[in-house]
Amino acid sequence: MKLSAAAVLALLSTAVAAVVLGLLILRIPTELLPQALSVLHREQRSGHELLLTEVHDLYRFHTVEYIYRSVFPYDYMAPHLSLASILRSIRAGSGSIADMLNEEEQRYLDAYNISLQAGLRTDTAAAEFVVVTVVVRAGFDLADTVFARPHEATPEELSSVFSVEEVHNAATGARLRIARMTTPPAVITDLRVEDVNPETYPYPDVSLSPDGWRSIAQFVRERARSETIGDGILRAAEQNGHRLLETLLLQLGYDRVELRTGNPGLSHENAGFRD
Question: Is the pTM of this model over 0.90?
Fold first, then answer.
């Protein structure tokens, strides 16, 4: 039985959604799923709000998860630098501070200033620190793409996302069915700072105002994003996602699968893929 492009895309979306919904029903911990789709957001909300969040996130497939843990501010203050040396560089230079400092010096100064504003003592024998954990997930955001609504796509849009070629081997008489699919680029699909539980936090307690904590969390969050992207989280997410799609397509009966990255958006929509 031959399936149309729209039917194949609908089946793939349904199959992946079924995996996610099944995990929700069975409550399988995400850590038991190596390189698979992770379960959706777990915010404690009212039932209808949680349902809406989960339905929306069915098109946001997490294919890799990094745990980024930082000791703030010391992970951002290189030991060979000091505030005094940075200030000397600023005094000796000209122009804006951003032009006078390299990336390492700027990171040190930013971390120091945020610590000062938050009330963390960093210049005493009993220096204070905060351990911040950020969960970074990456994968595919298929909302507003042909994957999400294949029956609304034009034939040209469907063929640009999914096509099948039948190759006939004259010697053997066999037919090889090759499926070709285009996926959107991998993106950061979730980036959240874990709340600190005072009962289980194993490090020395520090007194921080809500604004101080928010400043620290935002700084670490931005660093987690840039550093995990630099470490290749998007490449890993794409590879994991392509492996999953290849497996599903082979199970649908295709002999070979070729996947590439593109922009499978609907022409009448603004896809708005995030990087």
Answer: no
